[in-house]
């Protein structure tokens, strides 16, 4: 019998999951770790990079004032190790530095699956774990079977005991060494390496072809800082946390330039508008709102740092509306985006790319105009009816408008201007109408009859929209369900004034996939969705219906 789950450990009547560590309540220097059902006990070896450490009651190791290790700053949320001994861990707590070394846990896997990576403190088991149940009372470590009550050496540092199917090991912690790893020696039948007995005393160091005097500090890269101490080069580097787990929802893994470790950072909020307007709010609520008028798309309701409004136009259709123009306001700066990617700044038409130092940066690709602002708000516009607004996570919970409130909850995205939460998309949308003509906008839209809807379904709409469910977009289907985009595509094609209305839904889906790091580079060619630059679109053509 075997299992693939990591076995837990039981010690003094308590159960500990694999990889858990704990300390003896009576002796803070006595440490335990559970690794796949094996308990390893060891003594902490303290390391004090200062000359006069302070001892603290209830704490194993003395503390040093300040949080520098070999020139490396130790922050409160990270730990640092030395390159000479990667098992030394230094942590900072309110300006006090504590460093210690712990023995590696005993591994429960065959020797052939044990890997020891350069620069890593402890070896690890490669591949998934399989544990075979030994006879009652006996123990199995790796591929070896031990009877209950037996004692055995795993290596020169470790003595283990098997008692009623529980393996407990006592492992010696080797002393901290300050000589370079290549100079460390280990004698036959000895547990720990050692530095040479006699070392040359010098007042300078050589590293990478350069000479440093005693006390000099330098950075090798964003991960490693070194110092010259009594002729020895001593380096330290942050210990990056293991990233073998996915980032939380609404966050992504980033490796910031100039920083050593990757980290999970909160994603920007993104609101998408496309087609006969369909909206995906910052919090992910999907809805359609057919209103030809001017609306508050998103604004900072608390501090009024920015406002984005859209004008929706029926474009000579009876039942629909498409986004026609966008108005962005940040302080005294006004940006207007129109059809065919026309751009105005403070009322004057400008050519793109366009830039105002420290305020505004407008660029253009083959398929869109991208507006970057100094406050981190970005607007992407395809010049037809696709619009994407992204805002920094710092705006969470302080926005309002058709894009919702960006508070990580979908249930209250339909919050009206007056603060009341409603269920009807039409009622919600109309509450955000702005301008002198908003009373006229409140008229309910004319809804098509059943015959018209049936005729739409019988046309080629389904064949065109079915591409969303095809191999073209298949790489993204597991992360983004295409159902809502497919429904939006069918709605758009029913009232479609041009030949390529389905492309807006495809573009919205492709952008959502790209944000989740699933690129779909050939979707345009495969679906014959051309960009604004090669589509013959004019107000007259847009208003010409296919049926």
Mean pLDDT across the residues is: 83
What share of residues are in beta strands?
25-35%
Helix/strand/pairing category: mainly beta
Q: Largest sheet, if any?
A: 8 strands, antiparallel
Radius of gyration: 33 Å
Count all strands and give the number.
43
Which stretches are poorly predicted, pLDDT < 50 over at least 5 residues? Answer: 446-452, 533-547
The shape is elongated
User: Counting H and I runs of at least 4 residues, what is the number of helices?
Assistant: 8
Q: Whole-Å distance between the termini?
A: 68 Å
Helix content: 10-25%
Summarize the helices and strands and which ones pair or pack.
Elements: E1 2-3, E2 9-11, E3 14-16, E4 21-23, E5 30-35, E6 38-43, E7 45-47, E8 64-65, E9 68-69, E10 72-73, E11 79-82, E12 88-93, E13 96-101, E14 114-115, E15 124-125, E16 131-132, E17 139-141, E18 144-146, E19 151-155, E20 158-163, E21 166-171, E22 204-207, E23 210-213, E24 217-221, E25 224-229, E26 232-239, E27 251-254, E28 263-266, E29 269-274, E30 278-280, E31 286-288, E32 294-300, E33 307-313, E34 322-330, E35 333-337, E36 343-345, E37 348-349, E38 354-356, E39 360-364, E40 369-373, E41 378-381, E42 387-391, E43 399-400, H1 425-430, H2 438-441, H3 450-458, H4 461-465, H5 483-494, H6 502-515, H7 523-527, H8 539-543
Helix pairs in contact: 5-6
